[in-house]
Specification:
This is Putative transcriptional regulator. Pfam families: HTH_26 (PF13443). One of its GO terms (molecular function) is DNA binding. Strands 1-2 form a two-stranded antiparallel ribbon. It has a single domain (2-64), classed as lambda repressor-like DNA-binding domains (434 Repressor (Amino-terminal Domain)), CATH 1.10.260.40. The protein is mainly α. The protein is built from 5 helices and 2 strands, in the order E-H-H-H-H-H-E. The longest helix has 11 residues, at 44-54.
Length: 70
């Protein structure tokens, strides 16, 4: 499972989805899906813009968490 820490990063920086959308040009719907971890795929350019805007690496934005089921 891939965990997205976008919501936590926004909270720490006291940013809103609309702020990030305006600053990066990323569609608000895409950011909302990342925020609620419902995105099924993410374009590399979106990850690049988010990481640059937030000043983080991909490893800080996304995390692989092994499934607990056998």
């Amino acid at each position: 499972m891939i965990r997205c820490h976008f919501a936590r990063l926004l909270g720490e920086r006291k940013l809103k989805i609309s702020d990030v959308s305006r600053a990066t040009g990323i569609n608000r719907g895409t950011l909302t899906r990342l925020y609620y971890e419902t995105a099924e795929r993410v374009e590399l350019d979106v990850l690049d813009k988010l990481c640059a805007h937030l000043g983080v690496g991909v490893d800080e934005l996304l995390e692989h968490v092994p499934d607990e089921s056998p």
